[in-house]
Amino acid sequence: MITEIGQDISLAAALLRKGALVAIPTETVYGLAANALDIEAVVNIYEAKGRPRFNPLIMHLSSLEAAADYVTDIPSPLRLLAERFSPGPLSYLLPKSSRVPDLITAGSDRVVIRIPAHPMTQELLQQVSFPLAAPSANPFGYVSPVTAAHVLEGLGGKIPYILDGGPCSVGLESTIVGMEGDELVIHRLGGISAEDIYLATGMKPGFSLLHKKPDTPGQLKVHYAPGKPLIQGGISELLLAHAGKKLAVISFTQAWPDVHISKVLSPSGDLHEAASQLFTVLRELDKSDADLILAEDFPDTGIGQAINDRLGRAEGRV
Ligand code: TXA
Ligand code: MG
Question: Model pTM?
Fold first, then answer.
């Protein structure tokens, strides 16, 4: 199969109506989309990604109102968050209605709903009459794609079309939030920070990031990972410990002198800029001739928490 890259939203919609897979731009990362109500198309998502069937898929809709048919309840704290952050990089774990195929949720009675802000995907969602199931558009376990070219690298030849919406502005996956009883719980850190959620609701969110069962988003230990080994920590000590190797260093604001490759994510110290650069830099370093990738600890506030989470997963430590 030849994979085309283009900006034709009507073509993307037509392909999706026929049951084909289309990579779509969102503000977080590119998604690998199919009609969420078409079982065969959804099976093809799992196949194309090499993703185990026990790992459920996010369902994308144009608005929370459009989600009404697919969920049985939207608890008021999540409604409040949606008013503040949707469309945007926040996803909601909600009790599913019978219209959501079990294959989407891997058998769980809850579904993750996301309302992406990217204008091309918003337009696409208006043009089709069904929700889009879309995991990140990368082979299972690898770093998520933040450009059309990244999607092509991983899935070229396996899908007919990549809708090119330019580089993703956030650059990390959405935050996933849900309710456990009366408590707000973050299941995955991402584009919206824990502080943002606290400020919008007045509720201090709990965290449930380590569970492996599909009813709490199943984050496998090594995920979002480049092929090369990566270690996160104090760079001075790591440089000493690994002297003699070709080292690549990822740092926040300051370049490291005298290392094989030094990558700075935000010279001005902006964590959002750093987040938007992270996956592109991981891919570049993976292709470089470095033996080992070292990464600084980022400030653990705001979206810095999500950056540290992804580096930890790349290392296999989380
Ligand atoms: O930003 C994003 O969320 C991107 C873009 C494309 O929207 N999507 C994305 O999807 O990151 P994916 O499949 O790569 O990650 C979704 C995560 C997985 O860890 C999955 O286990 C969890 O969400 N998940 C999805 N549905 C779930 C459910 N019903 N219950 C528990 N966890 C769920
Ligand atoms: Mg993914």
Answer: 0.95
Cβ atoms 225, 283 nearer than 8 A: no
Strands 183-188 and 22-24: unpaired
* pLDDT value at residue 214: 40
Ligand nearest to the CA of 56: 1
Same domain, 189 and 241: no
Low-confidence ranges of the chain (pLDDT < 70): 210-223, 318
Prior bond of 217 cis (ω within 30°) = no
When divided into structural domains, the chain yields a total of 2
> What is the structure's pLDDT at 116?
98
Task: Give the range of the structural domain holding residue 148, as residue numbers without chain letter.
Answer: 4-207
pLDDT at 212 (0 to 100): 40
26, 45, 49, 58, best to mutate for ligand 1 pocket (most atoms within 8 Å of CB):
58
